[in-house]
Amino acid sequence: MWRRGIVLAAVAVLLALLLSFHSRLPNRIGNVGSLSETFLPWSGLAVPVLLVLALVRRSTTALAAVVLPLALWLNMFGGLLTDKSRPGGDLTVLTHNVNAQNPDPDATARDVAAAGADIVALEELPEDQAPRYARDLAAAYPYHSVQGTVGLWSRYPLHGVRPVDIRMGWTRAMRAAVSTPHGQVAVYVAHLPSVRVKFDAGFTAGQRDRAADALGRAIAGETLHSVVLLGDLNGTMNDRALASVTSQMRSTQGAAGNGMGFSWPASFPMARIDQIMVKGIEPRSSWTLPRTGSDHLPVAARLQLP
User: Fold this and answer.
1) Element spanning 204, H or E
2) Contact predicate 227/213, CB 8 Å
3) What percentage of the chain reaches a pLDDT higher than 70?
4) Is the pLDDT of residue 98 over 50?
5) Rounded Cα distance, 116 and 133, in Å
6) Which of 26, 219, 241, 305 is deepest in the core (most CB within 10 A)?
7) How far is CA 141 from CA 3, 124, 158, in A?
8) Rounded-to-integer distance, Cα 184 and Cα 2, Å
9) Whole-number Cα distances in Å, 282 to 25, 120, 176, 238, 242
């Protein structure tokens, strides 16, 4: 009984090692570390498979070994399976990568407006479509600014609007101070560079990583106490390459969401790369919205300002 299932036990131990030491996987070769961290929650699917195979083999050794990755996965991601949302909050924010190839931007703008958020961030705005979004959102949001390919719409006045240099050569990030009834909030909107998985180069993310570092430095230098980051970061909270941002901010989904909150791709969401993060603010709830004409899902959060 103890000798059966040695191979299954070895696989379970390897999975446990991946969960325990994913941060030690090197990024020098094809950014394999970041690639594994992007889809790390999906490693949990291997646990029930190993469990069934261990039962079929009637292997006590394999069953004991499967407990290791199961316990580790629950410790890392089990909290995301519960509903941590709470009532209350005085500011609702929303971010959406609208997709430059969106076949119906007017419908997407109407869907965004119907969500009823106080502050809306849009990413991947083509120059020729930005006026259409501005027109469609004008009734709900009297204040707005578009900087490069990102934009911010607000029910409350905007001040100190400026682009944020994330070392890309063109503008894909911005900052504005929003004067809410509960005080000023610094809102950052960012669309970090895309990553690619290539057969000959692995997980190519160098430009994304440099942009994340620049964004992290900009947020660290913010003088306002309450800070919100909205955008498509092309990375998850587990991705070490975003540490310059994630180390100083909280994910609203992790703190007050219900479930994993995957946002991409919209047809079958597998990762949460669209993020709402806060500093000096208490998240009360966080959720994804129904699909629009984009390949990303919109994500929203309800916040309690100090």
Assistant:
1) strand 202-204
2) no
3) 94
4) yes
5) 16
6) 241
7) 67, 19, 11
8) 64
9) 33, 18, 20, 21, 21
